Amino acid sequence: MTKLDKLKQAEHLYVYEKQPLEVICAKLDLSRRTLFYWKNEYSWDKKRFEKGREQEFFNLELLNFVQKIMDKIAKDIDNNKQTPQAEMYSLINILKNLPQIKQYMSEAKQKPKKDKYLPDEIIKIVERNILGIQ
């Protein structure tokens, strides 16, 4: 495998499969230094971020589309109207993939958020040791 092939494969593993650099080093037998150079030189972090945003946007659009189809089918049922078979087929196929989308969305929401405040224990230590407050 040429160096160019390893570069392309490493980028794919990092950007699209979101594998850590240590795993990529082991898989492709590359040094960390080489991977860090490639990562900075070819803006892998930016590409990874953009790919995540694209996926999130697509998932939201798909969820909105599913909601519209379901609303239309409900309206057809309320009006005793026949729902086109293509709409039912589309809804069923989308619903098969919905659990994967929901899992992705829940993982994106569960990313730990940094607190803006110090924990109470740290505040008490600062008050006691630095400020002299008991």
Structural class: mainly alpha
What is the end-to-end distance? Answer: 66 Å
Spans with pLDDT under 50 lasting ≥5 residues? Answer: none
Helix content: over 70%
Mean residue pLDDT: 82
Q: Please indicate the percent range of residues in DSSP E strands (runs of 2 or more).
A: under 5%
Task: Supply the number of helical segments.
Answer: 6
How many β strands by DSSP? 0
Tertiary shape:
flat
Order of helices and strands: HHHHHH
Q: Assembly type of the shown chains? A: single chain
Main beta sheet: strand number and arrangement?
none
Number of structural domains: 2
Give me the Rg, rounded. 25 Å
Write a structural description.
There is one protein chain. The protein is mainly alpha-helical. It has 2 domains: 3-42; 51-109. It contains 6 helices and no strands. It has helices at 3-15, 21-28, 32-41, 44-78, 85-109, 120-129. The N and C termini lie far apart (66 Å). The model has no long low-confidence stretch (mean pLDDT 82).
Short description:
The protein has 134 residues and is an all-alpha fold. The chain has helices at 3-15, 21-28, 32-41, 44-78, 85-109, 120-129.
Provide tags for this entry.
75% helix; 134 residues; mainly alpha
Topology:
Blueprint: H1 3-15, H2 21-28, H3 32-41, H4 44-78, H5 85-109, H6 120-129
Helix pairs in contact: 1-2, 4-5
